[in-house]
Design brief:
The chain is of the alpha/beta class. Helices cover about 40% and strands about 25% of the residues.
Length: about 300
């Protein structure tokens, strides 16, 4: 059996689509199809049922998936052991993260790491969604809800805080907010509740934000820009808003606190390039704890 065929099979099984697998692997769709056909021919079994909606595993495919993942785990473990003595770190590491921490914190943080390791290829996916490490959607991920099952390694990254903000121009032009009841006369920039990927991100009630006029945006980056544009007041991440001179903190004695967790799949945790990025992010966040807890100062 050709391992390259099995590697392609794993990508299709995890994504449920030939096209998504081809993009993930950097192969064209014809090559993906050819390798799946070759694997099925080698094994003498049909592994995938294909339809316009995607690809699903047959009973034989479900059985082979378990075998292929065991083989993959052994190869990754061997790779981690062999690359420990490598002079330089090379290869691809994909990081999944909520859009706020991914864009406002991780993105500028990575420049010195990449300068030190020019052959390291980082894929950063800062998206308002959860990532499945079991499906290899990322090598490591920052999460607000640590997974409660699966072969993941979980470490607390940092606590962080959120508070109520307005743009400085908005605050000059509108009635002051000195108590939660004063918010009722303002439009509140907030999230779209039914699009939240975690219940931990539903925090308006904790700040006693009254029901009223809303501007809702599914992206925390969009929420920050809406507050900057003067659409209304909003609950923003302190580590982003307090460093930006365009914003003023309202009701400074009130804050919401949450936690970021750094999660890796056990199979790739000891691969040198993944371990490097993991340890770099962990050390950086611990160094910057005061930044993340800005709302508590």
């Amino acid at each position: 059996m050709d391992w390259d065929h099995a590697r392609v099979f794993l990508a299709v099984a995890r994504s449920g689509q030939m096209l998504a697998a081809s993009r993930r692997l950097g192969l064209d769709q014809a090559t993906v199809t050819r390798r799946i056909n070759g694997l099925e021919r080698d094994l003498g079994a049909k592994l995938l049922e294909r339809s316009p909606a995607g690809s699903s595993l047959t009973a034989a495919g479900e059985r082979f998936l378990q075998s292929a993942e065991r083989i993959e785990s052994e190869m990754l473990r061997a790779q981690g052991e062999l690359t420990d003595s490598a002079v330089s770190i090379a290869g691809t590491v994909r990081i999944g993260a909520p859009d706020g921490v991914g864009t406002w914190y991780l993105l500028p943080l990575l420049a010195p790491l990449l300068a030190q390791h020019p052959d390291l290829h980082v894929q950063l996916a800062p998206l308002p969604r959860a990532f499945s490490l079991a499906k290899r959607e990322a090598d490591l991920a920052i999460m607000v809800d640590p997974p409660d099952e699966g072969r993941q390694r979980i470490v607390k990254l940092t606590d962080y805080s959120l508070g109520l903000y307005a743009s400085r121009d908005y605050a000059r032009r509108h009635a002051p907010i000195e108590a939660p009841a004063d918010i009722a006369s303002h439009r509140v920039v907030s999230y779209v509740r039914d699009l939240l990927f975690s219940s931990a991100l539903d925090y308006l009630d904790e700040l006693n934000i009254p029901a009223g006029r809303r501007f809702e945006c599914a992206s925390v980056i969009g929420q920050l820009e809406a507050v900057r544009a003067g659409i209304g007041v909003g609950v923003l991440h302190d580590y982003a808003a307090q460093r930006d001179p365009d914003f003023v903190r309202l009701l400074p004695d009130r804050a919401v606190r949450r936690t970021y967790w750094l999660v890796t799949h056990a199979d790739v945790r000891d691969v040198a390039r993944v371990r490097l990025v993991h340890d770099f992010i962990l050390a950086s966040a611990r160094r910057d704890r005061a930044l993340f807890a800005a709302g508590g100062r």
